[in-house]
Design a protein that fits this description.
alpha/beta, about 20% strand, globular
C-alpha cells in the first residue's frame, strides 16, 4: 500500500480547512503535516485538528518556503493578492500545489506560475 500524500496548508482560511478535512476522513490517502498562516488562532486550530507539531507551524509562507521541503504538496488558500507571490517560492522548493482561484491577478503572473511549475517539475491545479 502506498503512503498518504503529505500536505502543508498555506493560508488556513475556510477553503483550505475544507480541503484539508479530506485528510481527516481519509487518513490512508492524505496527511496534513504543516500549516502556515499569519493568524495564530487559525494556525493553532489547524495544528490541533491535524496533530501538527509546533515546529511544523509557520507564521507565513515565507518561513515554510525557507525550509527544506517537508510535504509532497501544499494547499494554497492565501488571499488572492498573495497567490502569485506565495506560490512562486513554494514551487521553487518543489511543492505540488492546489492553488485557490484565481491563480493570479494578471496574465503575466499566470504565465510565470506555468513556467515555474514546468521548471521545477511541479503540478499546479
Amino acid at each position: 500500500m502506498q503512503r498518504p500524500v503529505t500536505v502543508a496548508v498555506v493560508g488556513a482560511g475556510h477553503r483550505s480547512v475544507a480541503y484539508a478535512r479530506y485528510a481527516l476522513r481519509h487518513p490512508d490517502r492524505m496527511k496534513v503535516v504543516a500549516v502556515a498562516d499569519p493568524n495564530p488562532l487559525r494556525r493553532e486550530a489547524v495544528a490541533a485538528q491535524h496533530a501538527i507539531p509546533a515546529e511544523e507551524c509557520f507564521a507565513g509562507y515565507e518561513e515554510l518556503a525557507a525550509r527544506p521541503r517537508l510535504a509532497d504538496a501544499v494547499i494554497n488558500g492565501t488571499m488572492d493578492a498573495l497567490h502569485y507571490p506565495s506560490a512562486m517560492p513554494l514551487l521553487a522548493r518543489g511543492y505540488h500545489m492546489l492553488l485557490e482561484k484565481p491563480m493570479a491577478r494578471r496574465e503575466e503572473e499566470v504565465r510565470g506560475l506555468i513556467d515555474a511549475a514546468r521548471e521545477h517539475g511541479c503540478t499546479v491545479m
